[in-house]
Specification:
Blueprint lengths: L1 E2 L2 E2 L6 H15 L1 H26 L6 E4 L19 E7 L4 E3 L2 E8 L2 E8 L5 E7 L3 E7 L3 E7 L5 E7 L5 E5 L13 E6 L2 E6 L3 E5 L5 E5 L5 E4 L6 E2 L4 E8 L13 E7 L6 E6 L7 E5 L2 E6 L4 E6 L6 E6 L4 E7 L2 E6 L6 E5 L5 E5 L5 E3 L3 E3 L2 E8 L12 E7 L5 E7 L14 E7 L2 E6 L2 H4 L7 E6 L4
Antiparallel strand pairs: 1-2, 3-8, 4-37, 5-6, 6-7, 7-8, 9-10, 10-11, 11-12, 13-14, 14-15, 15-16, 17-19, 18-19, 19-20, 20-21, 22-23, 23-24, 24-25, 26-27, 27-28, 28-29, 30-32, 31-32, 32-33, 33-34, 35-36, 36-37
Helix pairs in contact: 1-2
Length: 467
């Protein structure tokens, strides 16, 4: 039977019995009643604050610590001529070396961060980070670091950090990325006190001092997008960039093609397109020769193009260039190239006529690692051929310093053994990483591809001997 809507058939349900017991207990003990009320208030209050914080969040917060000491002085003003004194060995390698600082990117519970350390001691000078973000890109000048942060649903941000103080000079939201190319869709470059920010859709020029946007430019007419993976190069009156998926240019009597690349010259003060010229070579660097000249290695046929950009349109002359060589740098009319054959010989080529000026081959039973050109000198490591055994031997190896114009040997120094970890699946070689600010760094190549053991590979820093 039913009475007042309460089911009495078969006795009282379990839920109803528990409710009745709880009600009786609360009536008998006011303290329990107060405790339950407080617990509910805290739970609901915490949930409410979390909801409020999420709904009113202005985005990931940035933080900074330091500087912890006077700014460390650089060990020199240019690449050293006689790098032979060991400054220190470093586990892994920095993102950059600027003056007396090494710059390192990393992650922690506070998000991603950039840390500046004393180049001599490795002690932290300052740290700057951003919550709930990853570092998408980094670029450095002699006094500035520009960090591109990726914060997922919160979007992207650019922060310019003063290297002397570790504080933000300016912040802004970067141009929008095009869908489908997020792994290589942007670039930041600092050239002549201007910060250039490029995506496939836009190229921005910003003041390095305050981040004010001087101009913005989309791809030139007839081209679908900028090649954001291609380095920008600046001469005295131009900044050049690569555009892709371009229609043929009738001015060059091009053969019919569906699409091609174009090298574009823009005015650095306004972003106005001054000229464009076809460029079919891909993933070959364009080098700055001087204030009015660029150099580019071509793929087909194998040649080098010397490009005079001083006039209304570029004037191009070419000379043959072996397809098994890589361009390493240019100094005073000499192109330094390196063979991709087993010995990796280095040679100097005149830009006036394409003739070989000098060649340097490694000693018998040795090979060269990838060479580095800096301040009119060539830095290269002579080392044994790698055997099948693992790990490979780091010595006897030596660092050579050559004159870039004559090929004359200026200095040699024997290198110590450097720790290498990994699986041995990729052949390693000792290479020169940086040569600047009184420092030369030497490390094992491609370490990031094979270092799966968790123990970082060592990097060696060398400087001029103390006076």
């Amino acid at each position: 039977m039913s009475d007042g809507g309460t089911n009495t058939t078969g006795g009282e349900p379990g839920a109803t019995r528990r409710t009745a017991r709880w009600a009786a207990a609360l009536r008998a003990s006011p303290r329990i009643t107060l405790a339950v009320a407080l617990a509910l208030a805290l739970l609901l209050g915490g949930a409410g604050w979390w909801t409020y914080d999420r709904l009113t969040d202005d985005g990931p917060r940035e933080w900074s610590r330091g500087p912890e000491s006077p700014v460390p002085a650089a060990l020199g003003t240019e690449a050293p001529v006689r790098p032979s004194e060991e400054v220190r060995r470093m586990d892994g390698g920095p993102s950059a070396i600027v003056g007396g600082l090494t710059l390192h990117s990393g992650t922690s519970d506070e998000g991603s961060h950039l840390t500046a350390r004393d180049i001599r001691t490795g002690k932290t000078y300052w740290a700057y980070g951003r919550e709930r973000s990853a570092i998408y890109g980094l670029e450095f000048s002699d006094d500035l670091a520009v960090v591109w942060w990726s914060s997922g649903p919160s979007g992207h941000a650019l922060t310019a950090i003063d290297l002397r103080t570790g504080t933000a000079r300016w912040r802004l939201e970067p141009p929008t990325l095009m869908d489908g190319y997020h792994h290589m869709s942007s670039q930041v470059a600092i050239l002549d006190r201007t910060v250039y920010v490029m995506t496939e859709a836009e190229l921005w020029a910003l003041s390095a001092a305050d981040g004010e946007r001087r101009w913005r430019a989309g791809p030139p007419k007839g081209c679908e997008q900028w090649a954001a993976f291609e380095d920008l190069v600046q001469t005295r009156d131009l900044v050049t960039a690569l555009a892709t998926d371009c229609a043929d240019d009738p001015a060059y009597d091009d053969d019919p093609q569906t699409a091609r690349n174009a090298r574009v010259g823009l005015a650095p003060d306004t972003g106005t397109v001054r000229w464009r010229e076809p460029q079919d070579a891909s993933l070959r660097p364009v080098l700055r020769v001087d204030d009015t000249t660029l150099l580019r290695a071509e793929d087909d046929p194998d040649r080098v193009s010397v490009i005079d950009v001083s006039g209304a349109r570029p004037r191009i002359r070419t000379f043959p260039f072996a397809d098994d060589h890589s361009t390493r740098g240019v100094h005073e009319g000499t192109l330094v190239a390196q063979s991709r054959a087993e010995s990796a010989a280095v040679r100097g080529v005149s830009l006036a006529d394409g003739e070989q000026q000098w060649i340097r081959r490694p000693a018998r039973d040795t090979r060269f690692g990838a060479a580095r050109v800096a301040d009119g000198r060539v830095y290269v490591v002579e080392q044994p051929f790698q055997e099948e055994s693992w790990p490979p031997e780091a010595g006897p190896s030596r660092l050579l310093v050559l004159d870039a114009v004559s090929g004359e040997e200026l200095h040699t120094t024997d290198l110590p053994r450097l720790r290498l970890t990994g699986s041995g699946s990729v052949r390693q070689e000792l290479v020169v990483g940086r040569a600047q600010d009184g420092i030369v760094t030497v490390y094992w190549s491609r370490q990031e591809l094979i270092n799966s053991s968790g123990t970082p590979t060592q990097m060696l820093m060398l400087a001029e001997p103390a006076a």
